[in-house]
Design a protein that fits this description.
Distance between the termini: 47 Å
Structural class: mainly alpha
Number of domains: 1
Largest sheet: none
Radius of gyration: 23 Å
Shape: elongated
Number of helices: 5
Helix content: over 70%
């Protein structure tokens, strides 16, 4: 348990981590805006090379496997963090056979979804979703800092339209 003295430092640290994540997500969106077309072109070219017989299907599988390993590493980090917070929940989260089966099912559904969605729309939708996640993290960081009075709190009401409603009392 944190002492009263170290509590604000922990809150500032939490807000700083969220702020760094917001900056990284924003940078990702900016980078993807300039390089997304190039990546989509590379993916189409690789698919055409595999379909034409110039490259083996193994090359595409290795590239996809690399991304799968990266996502698997992220889920392991998440499970490790949850195991440290709540040991019983962490054991349930990190049960390997269930995680592998779930990962295979999600990968297959993602594959089917990617086949159905045009790439230009896929990148624009994910850009907006990442922006929404970053906005939520920025709001959470601001709320943490407002709770310890490091930034002014303007309240939780953005506007008050109660005057539009009839008063019945």
């Amino acid at each position: 348990m944190l002492s009263d003295r170290s509590r604000p430092r922990q809150e500032v640290f939490n807000a700083a981590i969220l702020a760094v994540a917001v900056v990284m997500l924003g940078w990702h969106n900016l980078w993807m805006a300039s390089h997304g077309r190039e990546l989509a072109g590379e993916m189409k070219a690789m698919g055409a090379a595999v379909a034409g017989g110039d490259k083996s299907l193994v090359a595409m599988a290795v590239r996809g496997r690399h991304r799968g390993v990266r996502e698997g590493a992220r889920s392991c980090c998440s499970c490790t963090a949850s195991r440290r917070r709540a040991p019983r929940a962490g054991r349930l989260c990190c049960w390997r056979p269930a995680r592998v089966a779930l990962g295979a099912a999600v990968s297959y559904l993602l594959y089917l979804g990617l086949l159905a969605i045009p790439l230009h729309r896929l990148f624009s939708v994910t850009t907006w979703l990442i922006a929404l996640v970053a906005a939520g993290m920025a709001g959470q960081a601001a709320a943490i800092l407002a709770n310890i009075d490091l930034i002014p709190s303007f309240g939780f009401e953005l506007w008050d339209t109660s005057w539009l409603l009839r008063r019945t009392a």
